[in-house]
Amino acid sequence: MNKQNDRILVFDSGLGGLSVLRELIRIMPGERYLYLGDSRNAPYGTRPTDEVRNLTFRAIEEEMEQGVKALVVACNTATTAAIEELRQRYPDKIVIGVEPALKLAAERCPGGRIVVMATGVTLREPKFCALMDRFSATSRIVPLPCPGLVEFVESGQLDTPELRAHLMELLRPVLPGGIDAIVLGCTHFPFLKPVIQSLVGGQAEILDGAHGTAQQTRRRLKAEGLIRMAQEGEVELRNSLGKAEILSLSAKLLEVRL
Ligand code: DGL
Questions:
Q1: Any bridge partners for residue 9, and if so which?
Q2: Ligand 1 atom, smallest distance to 17 CA
Q3: Which end of the chain is least crowded, N or C, by CB within 10 Å?
Q4: How far apart are the first and last CA of the chain?
Q5: Shortest CA distance to 27 belongs to which of 240, 241, 195, 212?
Q6: 47 CB less than 6 Å from ligand 1?
Q7: Does pTM surpass 0.90?
Q8: Closest Cα to residue 148, out of 113, 93, 192?
């Protein structure tokens, strides 16, 4: 069997990872993708870290046994909780995680005030603390846990009065002092970028890690000679809720223009 034709498994706690899948497809359109969203158990980001780790293992294990050449954990929360163990469990596969794009923000806004919007799990674990330490000498970094936001995306609400009110409540405490950049440290949040931008004003640059993750995936596939040389790829969307509605919302989000 030609390993290049094996699929790339893209996983998230729900629909957020579609923001990463979209970028993967854009830069590697000839690949075969399987997207797995665990919306039945979303949100992950308000759970104990051990629980997130176990949910992640359980969600992907069956597919990892079936000819998958790479796993992209398109979820900051699951990456935080499980990436080291995933790499140990699947030493023969390429395993890519995501992390808040703090490096990019620090480069773009030297000395700036950078707000990092993410889940509680992502912001409280040592992985993020280490990342923050790397850049806190040169940037003012403000972590902002955002409970409740994932649920809006999971229900397809990308711009409603309720969403705006909820976002305003989250952002209000960090607005004084000005914001140079916002890092979207949860893969659900890029779908809310236009609303967030309209609430914080045009001077704040809003960044996410989708492009960096897609590039890193391509680099690793290339290094191992695993890029699929085909004109056309394929995408299968799956969700643990198993309902037609969630699959059609997934397909819609994949096409959203931001
Ligand atoms: N999309 C996930 C992330 O990037 C988290 C969503 C959740 O809390 O389930 O962190």
A1: 34, 71
A2: 1
A3: N
A4: 39
A5: 212
A6: no
A7: yes
A8: 192
